[in-house]
Every structure is written in C-alpha cells, then in structure tokens.
Amino acid sequence: MQRNINNLIGYSMQATDGDIGNVKEFYFDDTKWSVRYLIVQTGNWLSGREVLIAPQAIIETFGIGKKFLVNFNKEKVCNSPDIDTHKPVSGQQEIELYGHYAWQRYGGSGFYAGGSIGFITPHPTIDEKILTEIIDKDKRVDYDVHLRSTSIITGYHIKALDGEIGHVNDFIINDETWQVIYLVIDTHNWVGGKKILIPVTHIKDIQWENSKVVIDETITTIKDSIVFDESKFIEQ
C-alpha cells in the first residue's frame, strides 16, 4: 500500500515497554530513493533528544492508532549512540548505530526486503566502504552524502525541461519496501492549485545548492500527471 510522508509525521514510536516519542521527519537515500531512518523526537523521559530508528526495527504499524511498534525497549534507546540529527550522519556513527541495535546493514538493493512492513526480513549486509566516498583525489569524507531529509527537500522548486512548475509538497512511499515512489508537487502558482504525482524515476538531478529538483519532462506532460488525492492516504 502507498502512504504519504506528511500523514506519518507525528506518529508515535512505541517500544516494548512504553512510548519513545513522535516521528519528526525521515532520512532517505537520494540515489536509491528509499527511507533509511525515521527521526524520532523523544519525550521528557529522554530530555527531548532526537534518535534515529531504521525501518527494519518496526514490527507493526498502519491502522494501529497512528503508532509504529518497534522490537526493543526504552533502555535500548536511552543507551543508543548520541547522534546530532542537525548534522550529517557519519559512517562511523552508522556503524555504531547498527551495531548497538543489532540491525542488518542497509542493502545494496536500495530497500528493506520482506513481504510485509510489519514483518521485515533482514536484508543483505554490505561492505562498509559504501558509507564513505572518495572525492578530491582520494580525500575521504566521513559522512553519507546521499542521506537527505524529507523536511529539507520539501519546498524545493521543480524544474522541467522548459521551465519551472511547482514545488515539492510531500512524498509517497511503498509501505512494504519503504521506497519513495512519487514526489507530490504543488502547482498552485502554475496550474490553479493542483497537486500532482511525479514518479521519482523522472528525477534527473537534485540541485541542493539551488533548492531545485530537475525533471526530465516538459511542463505540458507534468500538467497531465496523476492528481494527488490526499483523502486516499488518510487513515480511517
């Protein structure tokens, strides 16, 4: 089933022994277009600290009163590596995080395998080398340059082949694989207020320095895209 990210913001994260906090935003891989982490704002019990939770930890969700249920206790969260979510996540931090929770590493296939989001099977382990990139003649950076925040890209303008048309308003994910499959584009100032769905397969580039998403389609083609019906994504 498909879900929109905006409707998942605020979901509570429930450990085996109580409430952890609420989902604040999501980190996704901008090459695989798959969700890597949920950022959870903890409550007073942990001084409002923000923690990262990988989707594979979720054992039950959707239709359960807007809750994500995870397979560990609050003490596990309390003792987890302290990561500043306002800064890039380093490779070493990811190693420590996955080691602490005994999670399987993020797979090269780009998504978390499994037939149901409620019972996610471990995905293949990967070489730690992919956590860093070689740039500027073997100068190594210690953070994943492809890990992006959904809240940051929200608002980015859409650049078609022949001009601009709207801005990013939301994201649609597959709730079995955690793949991002569509961007929701608000064309209010261009096409009379419609929100439309653009498959991520049509994204040619993301210009982070200019806050733009480049699409390999014309404005006319985009105007004829699927209209986003938010009512289909609201829990009953």
Beginning-to-end CA distance, first to last residue: 14 Å
Radius of gyration computed on alpha carbons: 18 Å
Q: Could you describe the largest sheet, including whether it forms a barrel?
A: 8 strands, mixed
What is the share of helical residues?
10-25%
Under the CATH scheme, which architecture of the largest domain would be assigned? Roll
- Write down the overall mean pLDDT: 82
* CATH topology heading of the largest domain: SH3 type barrels
List how many beta strands DSSP finds: 17
Q: What's the helix count?
A: 5
Order of helices and strands: EHEEEEEEHHEEEHEEEEEEHE
Strand content: 35-45%
CATH classification, class level of the largest domain: Mainly Beta
Uncertain stretches of 5 or more adjacent residues? 108-140
Q: What do these coordinates show?
A:
The chain is 12% helix and 37% strand. It has five helices and 17 strands. The protein has helices at 5-8, 74-78, 91-101, 150-153, 219-223, and strands at 2-4, 12-15, 18-29, 34-42, 50-53, 58-60, 67-70, 133-135, 139-141, 147-149, 157-160, 163-174, 180-186, 195-199, 203-207, 212-215, 226-227. The radius of gyration is 18 Å and the shape is globular.
Write a compact overview of the structure shown:
The protein has 236 residues and is mainly beta. 12% of the residues lie in helices and 37% in strands. The strands form 3 sheets. Strands 1, 11, 12, 13, 14, 15, 16 and 17 form an 8-stranded mixed β-sheet that branches.
